[in-house]
Amino acid sequence: MTGPSLASLTRSMTLRERALVALRTAITSGQYRPGDHLGEVEIAERLSVSRGTVREALRHLQQEGLVTPGARGMLRVSQLTPTEVRELFQVREALEGLAVTQIIQSARGPEAARALREALERLQETVDAAVDLNAKVEADLAFHLLLCELSRNSVLLKTWRQLEGPIRVVIMSAAGERREVAMSASSHLPVVEAIERGDAAAAQRVLHAHMASAVDQLGIGRGGDRETGSD
């Protein structure tokens, strides 16, 4: 496992917190792939911490949905089925759709639209700069996080953040060229334009299309556990 060493993380954090950050980063950046086994001994040696510290960090990551128990109780990086991924993006669509509706219904629409346009500019600059994938994913999710923050609905925001880790894993697991299309600034622009017009219905339609397209572009909406009667 590469990524940030414990020494590079802030000294004010406890060993468990620093191990947690290092492990979370390794998973969400794709250094550990979905299905990879997470051995306590190996991780403890790499991070120079106790197995107990690693165990606590892994338990926390399990609560975040990034780690799941496999055969004989061995922990692995979570590997979502196609159905679970579609459901993940459906819930994300519902949350962000509610955020858009609440923004439009408030008096903050114009201010929110300006902030979101600035976030789109940062996303486009990041994509154009051909920086590493982690930076692109950060810029993409920053737009969606801001959308939820601007709703000023604390429960909505908290719920969205609980989905953030699994969303990152899904994105990092997709083929490179598919990720680029899904993270383009142009695919997000219609959401901002709908907010500027104060058209909640249009914003909902745009978000539905955006999420459906993301699932398709990421190559995760087909195959695997096909269900009877499902598309």
UniProtKB/TrEMBL annotation:
<dbReference type="Pfam" id="PF00392">
    <property type="entry name" value="GntR"/>
</dbReference>
<feature type="domain" description="HTH gntR-type">
    <location>
        <begin position="13"/>
        <end position="80"/>
    </location>
</feature>
<protein>
    <submittedName>
        <fullName>GntR family transcriptional regulator</fullName>
    </submittedName>
</protein>
<keyword id="KW-0238">DNA-binding</keyword>
<keyword id="KW-0175">Coiled coil</keyword>
<dbReference type="InterPro" id="IPR000524">
    <property type="entry name" value="Tscrpt_reg_HTH_GntR"/>
</dbReference>
<keyword id="KW-0804">Transcription</keyword>
<dbReference type="Pfam" id="PF07729">
    <property type="entry name" value="FCD"/>
</dbReference>
<dbReference type="InterPro" id="IPR008920">
    <property type="entry name" value="TF_FadR/GntR_C"/>
</dbReference>
<keyword id="KW-0805">Transcription regulation</keyword>
<dbReference type="InterPro" id="IPR036390">
    <property type="entry name" value="WH_DNA-bd_sf"/>
</dbReference>
<dbReference type="InterPro" id="IPR011711">
    <property type="entry name" value="GntR_C"/>
</dbReference>
<feature type="coiled-coil region">
    <location>
        <begin position="113"/>
        <end position="140"/>
    </location>
</feature>
<dbReference type="InterPro" id="IPR036388">
    <property type="entry name" value="WH-like_DNA-bd_sf"/>
</dbReference>
